[in-house]
Amino acid sequence: MIRTQDDDGVRVVTLDRPDRRNALTPDGLDALEAAVTDASQPVVYLRGAGPAFCAGADLDVVAGLDREGAEAFAERGQRVADAIADADSAVVAGIDGAARGGGVELALAADLRVATPEATFAEPGVKLGLFGAWGGTVRLPRVVGEGEALDLALSGRTVDAESARRMGLVSRVTDDPRAVADELAANDPRTLRAVKARMRDDAPPETQQRREAEVFGELVARHADAIADRRES
User: Fold this and answer.
1) Are residues 123 and 215 in the same domain?
2) Distance of alpha carbon 58 from alpha carbon 161, whole angstroms
3) How many domains, the chain?
4) Is the pTM higher than 0.90?
């Protein structure tokens, strides 16, 4: 269900269940979490096999859950989304085809969401009497704003890649999302980790600024020779 391949500074993590539009079971979520957290590469590229990115939770699993089991499944998905957000690696979600429900929520946890022109996005849970519970009600308003988030989640409507870019749901629209992962991997890995950590820091602003200065000092000291060479060139 989850395949990994390490290549030139990028770990490619593929959701590989195309016959089910890469819908995730509990075991699939666990395997995805391990694939992301175990990565030593500076960049993780998350993609789906076949014509969809990810349909979210496997509804056959959801249909068999009682109340406690459903709550546990939601918490499992939240844990995986948190692992993506908190990973040392920069995580790029390459979205080609349909992203639905939990698929959108996992992409929201990534650092960059890069879509092909064929990508589409929806939070259709409301049509089934459900909603996105893998952190969707938390991350979606942060990424696109409360108004757009409510529109998507309350209507269940589908938006195309360009509409998603305009609302901030995706960072770029390109024919080759993997190239963006390679672009990031060409940068200094320590700086990638530092920038991600600083951007993800939710400490009070004064603490964030102090940490920012400290890490900047560490990087300058580490790269002093390269900075001097660049200045003299």
Assistant:
1) no
2) 24
3) 2
4) yes
